[in-house]
Amino acid sequence: MANSKYSYEEGAIDQVIGLLHDLNGAPEDALRPIVEIENPQQATDLAQVLVALCPDSANARWLRSLMLELFFSTGRLTACLDLAREMQMSNLPTDIKESAWVAELMCTAQLDSDTAVEIARSELRRRKGRLKGSQAAIICAVVIADRCWSRGALEEGLAWVKRVDEQLDGITSAYWHMHVGIDVALKLVDVGQLQRARDLWSLISNRSRHIANPCVEVGLQLIDTTLNIHQGRWHYSSVGTKQVDADGKTPCLEFTRPYQATLYAMQSVAASYAGQGEAASELLRLSRRCSKSAAGTPLDPVDLWAEILIEDATSGSEGVRTLCHKVFPQNTHLQRALFALIPGAAAFLTQAMLELKDAEAAYNIGAQVDRLRRDNPGIATMTWVADHVTGLLEGSVTLLGSIAQNHPHAWVRYIAATHLIAAVTSDRPAPAVDIESVTDEKGSSRWQSLSSREKEIALLAAEGLTNQQISSRIFRSPHTVSFHLRNIYRKMQISSRAEIGKHLPKTEV
């Protein structure tokens, strides 16, 4: 009986193997719909079996490329790296090897961004900066744009993003084409180029109907959520997600998809804007679980912003300040990225510091935002950020009114309106130096445009004091003094401190 059972099982296994051999020999257009099933884990397993059974078959080449995409889209970065390196060492056509090189670079960017940037810059130097006709060069540009974005260098990053957008059709892999398209669209939203982002969303959405991939679906949902937030539609998808497998420890497949952590964090932000605190906290918890599941995923600006909003709702401005003091000293790049990429974040934190009467912290934010504006002169969103913060620091009804009426982001218009009301109804502090009665006719309007603090600093600078000496006199940091001096130059229409004296009142008090 035992022998009979063994013979039956052995025969069944032989039949399955025979079927798989036949399947591997099927034409590519017949095999693709079978392998590219909705469940990426099952698709990966099937592709691996087919390649293992017939490693030299006609289908083995594209099946390996498919496995690279599936490994990446399910967060199995180590497996993706191993396969990519193996393929590059094999006797494969050049285009297949290039696809493997692309997968290796994309995985490296997730695990070790510094190394990925080094590789990308080296490859582009070798190609003399040309992207056209090279899938690998286009992906290198994506990696460099990511680095610029993470450090608030939006102008440099946008130049790379636009080049990638122009060459998007040069990416031959359907999956990498959609993945890069999603990345480009998200960056264009960050700098306010919403129409092109919508166009890319439509393009990728139409293409994804023919190539099912959960990673792409999540990326499209992230673009849609981000655009909705810009327009004031602060809703989010139902959580309804199994968090762990049956053992309570292993992260489920959903939590390893690229974009999943950021999507949950963005949905948390939307919930906070809508006043749904419990939902915001739950969504951030899911985001953190995703980040932990995806190897090498750092805390990003969206994740941090979601936490800041929740902290403000539960602990107020003091809780926000404590969180910032904990996070920012360890990651100055994250702070720059937060101010550059999250609409209203810099102004929100400035107002929180002013409410705590922490003028030093508020003016330090102003100084950092001013540097960001100077570093990114061609990025319109940075002008909005700087004007909003300056409006708060100076109590400028004009600047705050302009933001409240004209800013493209709905939530920023809302908070600017609250800041405007506060500026109109609050009493401004008395000037530190009484100079209101001593103005000459020519310089009157320029001088009167300065805030009380700026007038004080202008007088000290005119006396010949250095920034360090002024900072000691007014108990503010040298960075804050520099920030004020730049505003003084702009308002008085001068280019250096040496010219300040020409526009001072004739009589000093």
Automatic annotation (TrEMBL):
It comes from Natronoglycomyces albus. This is Helix-turn-helix transcriptional regulator. Residues 443-508 form the HTH luxR-type domain. SMART domains: HTH_LUXR. CDD domains: LuxR_C_like. One of its GO terms (molecular function) is DNA binding. The keyword Protein biosynthesis does not apply. It comes from the Bacteria. GO terms for biological process: regulation of DNA-templated transcription. Keywords: DNA-binding, Transcription, Transcription regulation.
